[in-house]
């Protein structure tokens, strides 16, 4: 499947054969050692992803308090959960197309300001209808952040370490969910549920000005789609040589500054169609499972007789498992490939999810099962995101990642709704968690199907960045298609 991976693994930047030509952008990014500017980009993106995780999971942690404060039936919050996820679906799909057109940086900054304001407004909601509307708007902003954060990070990751680095960065999302749980546990008894949303809005507002000043645009995107002054500006800001690419670089005959519109149908062309559809399927199934668990686990634990504090602890344990899973699975993926690692992880996830609802399960074993479910399901999602970032070239990468997450959000919407209906039928915990294991089985089967396709896909022609024919040229960093998928 290496022929379908992003162009960074096989693009040849052709530069004049002169002593002053400097290093090539692809070589700079693929250096064995991370440079200072790469680390800086990763830290900024990780802070942004952390706040995303906080704000996405906040509603799940305040759910028990909301049910009591507004005298609601638990299933009444199903539309609220799903509204936020619907917003993330629309945001991921819409903003990704914009990002492949104008760049990742302006989209990330705009979405950060937007969802911060929406979080502050959520603290003033007076009804379920208002709460659902505000969660829809918040999700629209968050959806644009997550997809483009993964895209921008992938374009600063060395190819040989892309999976592990992206999964480490994605831990920020789970870390944010943990932070949300800790803050919720501290604030709920003292200040009530609105305080959690106030904190969730103030933190991104504090980060947004730093992003305006410090967050760079993707160098690969600028080299391919932008005018030369913009590329020179960021090379200067990053203290890099301004001759990393020649001033007369063209891409497939496209002059500097000309940006072709991106269409979603391109994700299905040039041998990408089957893989894209299967990628959407596994993202759908895994996010259905992930949000079924993360949205309803604290509330289900409360119905099983645990206190609010213990219920939050059980929900946080799922997220701790997600961090452990991402850290463990990333290096394995770099070594063995996405399919050989993720398929067994999802199969194992199905087993431990089914075990969570066993009657009379001791608290220690319950926490262990929840932790392992987090390793496999929550920890596996960054692997899916990294796989999406590896399958598409720069010109389609934001759209590819955005639509992977966007279609997946349809699953995340379905999960809480299905859970609400099942809970309304008074199904026991054992039956609920047996049903929750089914999407993990589907994730395993889909990933297995992608592994079969890996060995049968035809090669795609290598994409090149060219300079005019009259210039003497040499190819730097050209490599064959990768085999790690």
Topology:
Elements lengths: L11 E5 L8 H5 L6 H34 L8 H25 L1 H19 L5 H27 L7 H30 L2 H21 L4 H7 L2 H10 L12 E2 L21 H31 L4 H29 L1 H19 L6 H16 L1 H12 L2 H31 L4 H8 L1 H17 L9 E3 L6 E4 L9
Parallel strand pairs: 1-3
Antiparallel strand pairs: 1-4, 2-3
Helix pairs in contact: 2-5, 2-6, 2-7, 2-10, 3-4, 3-5, 3-15, 4-5, 4-7, 5-15, 6-7, 6-11, 6-14, 10-11, 10-14, 10-15, 10-17, 11-12, 11-13, 11-14, 12-13, 12-14, 12-16, 12-17, 14-15
Describe the structure in your own words.
Helices cover 70% and strands 3% of the residues. It has a single domain, classed as MFS general substrate transporter like domains (Growth Hormone, Chain: A, Up-down Bundle). The protein has 485 residues and is mainly α. It contains 17 helices and four strands.
Order of helices and strands: EHHHHHHHHHEHHHHHHHHEE
Q: Separation of termini?
A: 6 Å
What is the top-level CATH class?
Mainly Alpha
CATH superfamily: MFS general substrate transporter like domains
CATH architecture group name: Up-down Bundle
Low-confidence stretches: 1-23, 241-259, 458-484
Q: What structural category arises from helix and sheet content?
A: mainly alpha
Under CATH, the topology can be stated as: Growth Hormone, Chain: A
Number of strands: 4
Number of helices: 17
Rounded to an integer, what's the Rg over CA atoms? 23 Å
| Share of helix, binned | over 70%
- Note the overall shape: globular
């Amino acid at each position: 499947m290496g022929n379908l991976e992003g162009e960074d693994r096989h693009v040849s930047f052709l530069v004049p054969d002169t002593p002053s030509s400097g290093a090539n952008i692809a070589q700079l990014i693929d250096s064995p050692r991370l440079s200072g500017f790469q680390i800086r980009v990763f830290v900024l993106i990780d802070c942004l992803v952390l706040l995303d995780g906080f704000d996405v999971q906040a509603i799940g942690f305040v759910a028990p308090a909301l049910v009591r404060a507004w005298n609601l039936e638990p299933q009444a919050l199903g539309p609220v959960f799903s509204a936020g996820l619907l917003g993330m679906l629309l945001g991921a799909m819409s903003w990704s197309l914009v990002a492949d057109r104008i760049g990742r940086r302006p989209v990330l900054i705009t979405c950060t300001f937007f969802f911060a304001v929406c979080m502050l407004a959520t603290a003033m909601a007076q009804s379920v209808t208002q709460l659902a509307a505000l969660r829809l708007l918040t999700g629209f902003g968050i959806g644009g952040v997550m997809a483009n954060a993964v895209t921008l990070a992938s374009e600063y990751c060395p190819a040989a370490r892309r999976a592990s680095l992206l999964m480490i960065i994605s831990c920020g999302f789970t870390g944010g969910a943990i932070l949300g749980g800790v803050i919720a546990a501290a604030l709920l008894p003292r200040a009530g549920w609105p305080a959690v949303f106030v904190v969730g809005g103030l933190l991104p507002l504090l980060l947004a000005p730093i992003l305006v000043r410090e967050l760079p645009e993707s160098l690969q995107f600028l080299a391919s789609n932008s005018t030369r002054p913009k590329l020179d500006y960021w090379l200067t800001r990053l203290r890099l040589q301004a001759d990393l690419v020649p001033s007369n670089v063209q891409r497939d005959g496209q002059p500097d500054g000309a940006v072709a519109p991106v269409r979603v149908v391109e994700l299905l062309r040039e041998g990408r169609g089957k893989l894209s559809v299967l990628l959407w399927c596994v993202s759908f199934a895994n996010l259905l499972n992930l949000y079924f668990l993360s949205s309803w686990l604290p509330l289900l634990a409360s119905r099983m007789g645990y206190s609010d504090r213990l219920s939050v602890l059980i929900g946080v344990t799922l997220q701790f498992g997600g961090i452990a899973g991402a850290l463990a699975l990333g290096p394995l993926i770099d070594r063995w490939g996405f399919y050989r690692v993720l398929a067994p992880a999802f199969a194992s996830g199905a087993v431990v999810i089914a075990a969570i609802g066993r009657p009379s399960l001791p608290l220690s074993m319950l926490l262990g099962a929840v932790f392992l479910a987090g390793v496999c399901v929550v920890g596996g999602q960054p692997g899916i995101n990294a796989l999406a970032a590896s399958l598409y070239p720069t010109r389609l990468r934001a759209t590819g990642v955005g639509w992977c997450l966007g279609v997946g959000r349809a699953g995340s919407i379905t999960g809480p709704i299905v859970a609400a209906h099942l809970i309304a039928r008074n199904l026991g915990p054992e039956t609920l968690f047996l049903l929750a294991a089914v999407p993990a089985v589907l994730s395993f089967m889909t990933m297995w199907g992608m592994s079969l396709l890996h060995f049968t896909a035809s090669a795609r022609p290598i994409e090149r960045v060219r300079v005019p024919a009259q210039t003497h040229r040499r190819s730097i960093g050209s490599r064959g298609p990768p085999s790690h998928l």
